[in-house]
Amino acid sequence: MQVILGLLYHFIGGAASGSFYIPYNKVKKWSWESYWIVGGIFSWLLVPPLGAWLTAPGYLEILANAETSTLFYTYLMGLLWGIGGLTFGLSMRYLGLSLGMAIALGYCSAFGTLIPPIFYEIFGSQGNEKTISEIFSTMSGQVTLFGVFLCLVGIAICGKAGTMKEQEMPAEQKKESIKEFNFSKGLLVATFSGILSAFMAFGYATGKPIAEATVETGIDPLWQNNPVLVVILLGGLTTNFIWCIYLNFKNKSGSDYTNKQTPLLRNYFFSALAGITWYLQFFFYGMGESLFAQSGVGFTSWTLHMAFIIIISNLWGIYLKEWKGASRKTMFAIILGISTVILSTVVVGFGNYLAE
To answer: What is the DSSP string of 12-78?
Structure first.
């Protein structure tokens, strides 16, 4: 039952992440940096404390009593993740939902899933975290790692479909659905984003003492990661806020926030909606990760989260006609890639079932 619920929570979180950029498309006459930081203030500053207060009412006292080193390293992981999140938004801007997420999350899935158990193998674990050798030594671990491998194969196929689209479609047609389409620039920022976005998984690891302290106060383990999120996302806010304000000055777009020549109410509403949707991915991810961790397979959470995001974002990409005009061969490739990712989630789920 825990595995089924965990999969459900990861699917909801993945759906939120795969859909969060859609409201930004409704923002009119604002620069990218303006609507990105307005959404970010909701997703990283306003909503996380509310979510923690509703589910773990005494979280402020828990954070006040946490070790300084725990708070620092959790914040630092959020700071680094924030750089990945910043370039993640640029990936969507230059590549579109389907291709941008496939490439960025391919790196993110691999680094976020495999590096923590390798780290625990080298430096040791302080709790029940699995090392890479422990994972390989069990049938459930081997099945789950095969699922991770399938996920990466599916992501690679999605990326290949994107390059095929780049080669066969004229620039004018590609920019009908993605106004600022730029494959080379998008590939660079997506790669950078995918690597640094994996630090969210490390943030959960460094914030483990906060999660444990939350459970010790009598809070349901399902909500233990919400106080950790408050710290991680403050780090993410720091990097994004600094960069976006810099761009406001550089591009002279600071007037966006009060310019009555733009649909201000509409822009604030859709930016806020995008930011809240962004936060919900981690709210539900934390719930799924808590259930998987209780079964000893928490390391698989990141891969599942990435896989569900890719599934949803590619479906959105098809719906928004980002692949309009692509050849049948290219469409077959993107469908094969999505199907492989879906299969990987089934394999990872079966691995979790064996462990439980």
So the answer is: HHHHHHHHTTTGGGG--S--HHHHHHHHHIIIIIIHHHHHHHHH-TTHHHHHHTS-HHHHHHHHHHH
